[in-house]
Amino acid sequence: MNLNITDLLKKIIFGILLLFSLMLLLGFVLGKTAHPPETDIVKFIENNPDRSAIKWMRNDSVVVDNNSDKMMCLASTVKIILAIEYAEQAASKKIDPDQMIPIRELDKFYIPNTDGGAYPRWLKSFNDKIEDRHISIRNIVKGMIWYSSNANTEWLCKKLGLENINTRLEKMEVKNHDKIFYPVSALFVGKEKFPDLKNDKLTQELRAMTMEEYHRVTYIIQEKLLKDPDYKSDLGSFGFDVQRVWSDNLPSSTTAEYVDIMRKINSRSYFIKETQQYLDDIMERLLLNPKNRSWLNHAGMKGGSTSSVLTKALYTTDTKGNTTEMAYFFNDLERDEVKALSGSMNSFELDVIKNRLSKSDIIAISSNYGQGNQTKRKR
């Protein structure tokens, strides 16, 4: 009898524990379901002032200015600066946009599974532009802006010269902007600097590095990628936390600076005619669509994203002469938030460009909580 009672008690206890575990699991699932990631960009900005910044101008007047001086990670939106430097060098005959470059030189900087497939998509789309496995610099720049290929960006950083690119920021009087460096080489900083560390220890050491040292190591890695085709075959320890460090260390700037850059392009008067023509060729892909040309005279944009960052800068001039410039940045996002908000960007931008946002929506995204915080938050 004692044995049977003991067995019965064990079964009862096991059943209680199992039921408790199921209740916890159900509560977790329901909690996740009850609080899905925000998809409405207006509501996200309103409810997440510490993770948002936006500046929007229409016809030279400020419509929204919320946290516009806050330094935030740019992700691939920074590639606009490289496009401008390319246009300046092409206009001044320092480079030939039609020079054909071996694709193998770009292949050196393509790291599979790190760019969302941007590089192979660009090559496939531009297959008719490839001659004997060579492609023009002009089309390499389009691959950077249109497809956001990091391999193209890394190659252009070398071709245009990082010093020239960063000096361009000074010439354009862009004051609040981090130094631009090699984005693909930066993926390997952990492997190069701390080859024996992994996970938390590696993350701690990477975060402890000064940006000067971080940049210095990327130069070393760049030379290795150029000379040793096997170097890129192994990223080393590159888990989610290490990826977040890479994302955090990408250049930061402000929505105020990027709206000013958009205004320079949209004005049609800041750059000389030849530079503007090269910029239009790169930036105004939207106008390849006849439907867009029916209501827009000029339009350009570039966005960027990582697993925790979502950014966009844009400009338009419609057929009635109305001008719009906007930059909006989100940092410190969860992965599901990046995905959810990305799906709403197009409709939000159309509402802005066509001036369709309601007064209440404009008020909601105009609140200035956290204004003036110029420190990039480290995760």
Please outline what is shown here:
The chain is α+β, with helices and mostly antiparallel strands. It has helices at residues 2-34, 41-47, 79-91, 103-107, 118-125, 137-146, 150-160, 162-171, 189-193, 199-208, 211-227, 240-249, 255-266, 273-283, 290-293, 335-342, 345-353, 359-364; strands at 52-58, 61-66, 72-73, 100-102, 134-136, 252-253, 296-305, 310-318, 323-330.
Order of helices and strands: HHEEEHEHHEHHHHHHHEHHHEEEHHH
Rg = 24 Å
Question: Which residue ranges are poorly predicted, with pLDDT under 50 across at least 5 consecutive positions?
Answer: 28-33, 369-379
Tally of DSSP β-strands: 9
Helix share bin: 40-55%
Number of domains: 3
N- to C-terminal distance:
59 Å
**Count of alpha/pi helices:** 18
